[in-house]
């Protein structure tokens, strides 16, 4: 049996992790500016939560969930998205009594059994925000502006904001009749899935990726053209708020949602970068979801952002992301000084310095070679003579003729000062030390 990661999963290796940590940290920091607090929810929940929250007619529930029976005979499912679990927590933990709006964000893994493609996995990562308790369009615009600022802070460009409205249950019912009337003459040409959707959830036909279905729905009536006066006022309010924030947007009548809980505002950020066009993230309002899950009537809005897709887009747009930090110093050892080197290395680490030393009993020549491979900026040799004198020579591995004789006791402070500084500043620090240390 070959041991390998399950299909649709992947390892995030050390060389990649700094970029992941960067986008995570920036997201948390931007969310904090807007008053969103982090929430952490279980990886699996009762299957009924997703049946009620995501919708029984969705492909997610019908085809893509990882569902299993636990040892108590209960049906459980790995979370396929974050909103349902956040709403469950909102209700279970009495957040409806908190001051409104309640603003939450999350950073999760989620699971869907679907075809594996570039950037699409069966175990994937999502950032998301959810806001509860504000019914007006101002919170919609605020959430969109959070995303806009996040992308701007990361350095992501060539994205466009698309907005629309899919109405409320009242106007959607009449729209579905109009849509079904349009689709009826083409029913036998629709794919098998869309023929089922025609009965269960005809709006989802508009979002089908099959070429024949896309051709049929190209001229389908749009929900935005059939919304009621209340939904129209809400949508106009969203546009007015976005205008006041100076955010550009495109009114896109073709936006639909695959999850049953969305109402009114829907939005997407779409890449305009050649070769990676597509939706980066999407969200919308779900004013009936909390009540549908047994809580009091509570307006809500949120979005989900796929981290794998985001990192692909950043790479495609050649955005420079932080790289793993190399060691600042490598301590090479001679003359059975391993324990003394380990002690000095620990003292440096305790002071905040990224330090390494040999643990494999290499020769001095091999240690110097390993120091270069590690990417260390400086190297020093610690042997019996250096220990007796209380000094060592600190040498740059990146720039020739940059050396200094340093007291061992001074190393923590000196290396802290050199760490992560530009080369010119490092040279000045070393020159200043050499001129004042009087060794």
Topology:
Layout: H1 14-33, E1 37-38, E2 44-46, H2 47-55, H3 59-64, E3 67-69, E4 75-78, H4 83-92, E5 102-111, E6 123-132, H5 137-154, E7 159-165, H6 169-183, H7 192-200, H8 211-217, H9 229-245, E8 250-251, E9 263-271, E10 278-285, H10 289-292, E11 300-306, H11 307-316, E12 329-333, H12 338-350, E13 355-357, H13 364-374, E14 378-382, H14 384-389, E15 391-396, E16 403-407, H15 411-418, H16 423-436
Parallel strand pairs: 1-5, 7-8, 12-13, 12-14
Antiparallel strand pairs: 2-4, 3-4, 5-6, 6-11, 7-9, 9-10, 10-11, 14-15, 15-16
Helix pairs in contact: 1-5, 2-4, 5-9
Written account of the structure:
With 439 residues, the chain is α+β, with helices and mostly antiparallel strands. The protein folds into 2 domains: 14-168 and 227-316, Bira Bifunctional Protein, Domain 2 (BirA Bifunctional Protein, domain 2, 2-Layer Sandwich); 329-434, Anticodon-binding domain (Rossmann fold). 40% of the residues lie in helices and 20% in strands. The chain has 16 helices and 16 strands. An 8-stranded mixed sheet has the order 1-5-6-11-10-9-7-8. A 5-stranded mixed sheet has the order 13-12-14-15-16, sandwiched between helices. Strands 2-4-3 form a 3-stranded antiparallel sheet. α5 (137-154) packs parallel to α9. The model has no long low-confidence stretch (mean pLDDT 92).
């Amino acid at each position: 049996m070959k041991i390998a990661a399950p299909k649709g999963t992947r390892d995030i290796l050390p060389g990649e992790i700094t970029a992941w940590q960067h986008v995570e940290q920036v997201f948390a920091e931007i969310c904090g500016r807007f008053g969103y607090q982090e929430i952490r929810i279980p990886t699996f929940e009762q299957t009924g939560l997703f049946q009620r929250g995501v919708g029984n007619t969705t492909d997610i529930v019908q085809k893509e969930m990882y569902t299993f029976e636990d040892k108590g005979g209960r049906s459980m499912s790995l979370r396929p998205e974050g909103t349902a679990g956040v709403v469950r927590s909102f209700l279970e933990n009495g957040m409806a009594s908190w001051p409104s709006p309640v603003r939450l964000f999350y950073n999760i893994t989620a699971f869907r059994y679907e075809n594996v493609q570039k950037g699409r996995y069966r175990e994937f990562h999502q950032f998301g925000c959810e806001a509860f308790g504000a019914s007006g369009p101002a919170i919609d615009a605020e959430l969109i502006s959070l995303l806009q600022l996040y992308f701007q802070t990361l350095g992501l460009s060539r994205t466009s904001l698309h907005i629309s409205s899919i109405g409320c249950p009242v106007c959607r019912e009449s729209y579905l009749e109009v849509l079904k009337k349009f689709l009826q003459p083409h029913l036998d040409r629709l794919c098998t899935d869309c023929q089922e959707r025609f009965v269960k959830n005809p709006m989802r036909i508009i979002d089908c990726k099959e070429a024949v279905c896309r051709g049929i729905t190209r001229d389908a009536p749009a929900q935005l053209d059939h919304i009621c006066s209340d939904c129209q006022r809400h949508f106009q309010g969203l546009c007015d708020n976005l205008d006041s924030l100076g955010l550009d947007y495109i009114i896109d009548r073709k936006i639909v949602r695959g999850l049953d809980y969305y109402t009114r505002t829907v939005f997407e950020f779409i890449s305009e970068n050649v070769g990676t066009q597509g939706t980066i993230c999407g969200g919308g309002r779900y004013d009936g979801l909390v009540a549908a899950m047994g809580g009091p009537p509570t307006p809500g809005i949120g979005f989900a952002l796929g981290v794998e897709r985001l990192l692909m887009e950043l790479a495609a747009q050649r955005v420079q992301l932080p790289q793993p930090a190399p060691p600042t110093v490598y301590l090479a050892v001679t003359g059975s000084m391993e324990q003394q080197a380990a002690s000095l290395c620990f003292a440096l680490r305790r002071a905040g310095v990224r330090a390494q030393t040999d643990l494999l009993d290499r020769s001095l020549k091999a240690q110097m070679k390993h120091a270069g491979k590690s990417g260390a900026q400086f190297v020093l040799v610690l042997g019996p003579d250096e220990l007796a004198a209380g000094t060592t020579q600190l040498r740059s591995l990146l720039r020739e003729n940059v050396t200094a004789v340093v007291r061992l006791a001074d190393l923590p402070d000196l290396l802290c000062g050199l760490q992560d500084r530009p080369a010119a500043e490092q040279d000045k620090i070393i020159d200043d030390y050499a001129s004042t240390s009087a060794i």
